[in-house]
Amino acid sequence: MRFTTLRHPVVAFRRARVLPQWVRRIDRAVNRSINASPSWHLRDRGYRRLSRAADHGVLWYVAGGTLLVLGFGRGALRGVASMAVASALSDLVVKRIYGGPRPVFHDVPAVRQLKKYPSTASFTSGHSASAAAFATGVAVESPAAGAVVGPLAAAVAYSRLHVGAHWLSDVVGGVAIGATVALIGRLLVPARRLSDDPEPEVAQVVEPILLPASLDGEGVIIMLNADAGTSVIRFDPRPVIAERLPKAVLRELGPDETLDAAVREAMAADNPPRVLGVYGGDGSVSRMAHLAREFDLPLFALPGGTFNHFVRAAGIDSVDVAISALQTGAGVAASVGELTTAGRSITVLNAASIGIYPDFVAQRARRRARLGKWFGGVAATWRELRDAEAIDIELDGTQARVWSVFASVGRNTPGHVATMQRQTLSDDVLDVRILHARGSRLQAVASLSFGKATRTVLRTLRLLPPASDVEHITTRQIQIHVLPRHGRATFYAHDGELERRPAVDEDGRYTLSCVIVPSALRVYAPHPEPGESGGAIPVARS
User: What is the end-to-end Cα distance of the chain in Å, rounded?
Assistant: First the structure.
């Protein structure tokens, strides 16, 4: 391959001495391969125009202005500043020190050639340095925005090879300079951390109580849901239970055995248990809580599901922590919700909901046997993005069309719509969030996110519904009339469990009522540390 002639031949000599022979061989081989690749007019024209658009940083100034308008001001500022420094370093310093000849543009297919090729030294690529610096600078402030800008920066860097303006080593060197400049900038001017703009904390309300202690598990029955937590990796709890609670009765539910039937059988025995325990997810814990209330016994809950929202709120993050609370008699008087429809009442530990979330759970359940829980969830999300429909409700005499209604037990995190995990244990109110059907289906599906990291990304991308679409009600009881959609089953959910709607009334509606029941459940849980919110003096309760 031939080389162009530079005005200063000493520059080519410098490059030859700096870069090893094997690097120059790779450069020539890569350029030959790209030049010999089949031409496709649309692709070739796209790379040519992209390369020209990045001349003098114009593309990145436009991208920075766009990010500024979209609310990513800090990312735009850091990206443009990093680009300016990297461009100056590449063009004014590195090129003059190392230089080198550019590829011969006559070897480039005519459809890919630029109208005018630069006459400056080749090493390093200023376009690549600017692209990498801008993308890295944006990503430092906003990983989500950086993920969008990154592919564009990579395309600009490759375009310099595609049009024959640079060698591979020029592009790699430029990318290294650009990324390094942005990262050094981060050290000099630290980025805003996610924790600098945290979600508001919820004031903890906890009523510690003393419960009967059981050092060896005597008087305790533990129902084990073998299907719980199959979507995550969990250790078998039985060895730990057998070692620390040798006298506890551990019973694994059969495939067709219900928790209700097993508990009622145990309570009808000559020596019934004094503590009802359960190892499982939110659905199993919620059902056992209902039975504990019915038989007026304390609840011993061990985390065994995928999320374990209630036990996490109670400070129980492992089987060992739960057992320690049982052995010391530490407990909490937890408030619960009581959900009633068609004369049937259900104990709610976390939240009850209608609308798009129950539909999502129903779609996931249909696909779970074939795809598993996680892939079934992805398929269900895709279906909801295409076909989800709002529902019509009546609340306090006012009709509304909504995407969802969530009623959380206790006050929950401001700004959340899907309040699936309770934030406090002994609060005596329902926290209701109504997402009105004013925004898009995409925003409605995005509102179901509850993980901090996921919500941060969605908030950054402006995919969460605006606050004006969310109605927030704090109350002790709520009654909602639901108008089922024509020709479609309507579900409601509580603690992740799906329930089919009851028969409709004469006017075509069915009614859901939920009321808060303060301090209704005695549950073994570690007491708050001294100084923590809610660390009241424990009250003994049998």
Answer: 90
Helix (H) or strand (E) holding 310: helix 309-313
Whether pTM exceeds 0.85: no
DSSP string, 177-222: HHHHHHHHHHHHSPPPPGGGSPPPPPPP---EEE----SS-TTEEE
Per-residue pLDDT tens for 59-95?
999 998 888 877 788 888 899 999 999 989 988 888 8
Backbone angles phi, psi at 528, to 5 degrees: -60, 145
Question: How far is 516 from 335, CA to CA, in rounded Å?
Answer: 7
Checking if the pLDDT of 396 tops 90, the result is no
CA 388 – CA 381 distance, rounded (Å): 10
Asked if residue 27 lies in contact with residue 101, where contact means CB atoms within 8 angstroms, the answer is no
CA–CA separation, 37 and 318 (whole Å)? 58
Name the nearest CA neighbour of 24 among 12, 40, 36, 37: 12
The length of the chain, given as a count of residues: 542
Looking at residue 496, what DSSP letter applies? T
Tokens 């109350």 correspond to 475
- Are 332 and 538 within 8 A, CB to CB? no
Cβ pair 149, 79 in contact under 8 A: yes
pLDDT, tens only, 492-518: 899 988 888 777 777 778 899 999 999
The secondary structure of 29-72, three-state, reads: HHHHHHHHCCCCHHHHHHHHHHHHHCHHHHHHHHHHHHHHHCCC
Distance CA 56, CA 45 (A): 20
pLDDT tens figures, 254-276: 878 889 999 999 999 999 999 99
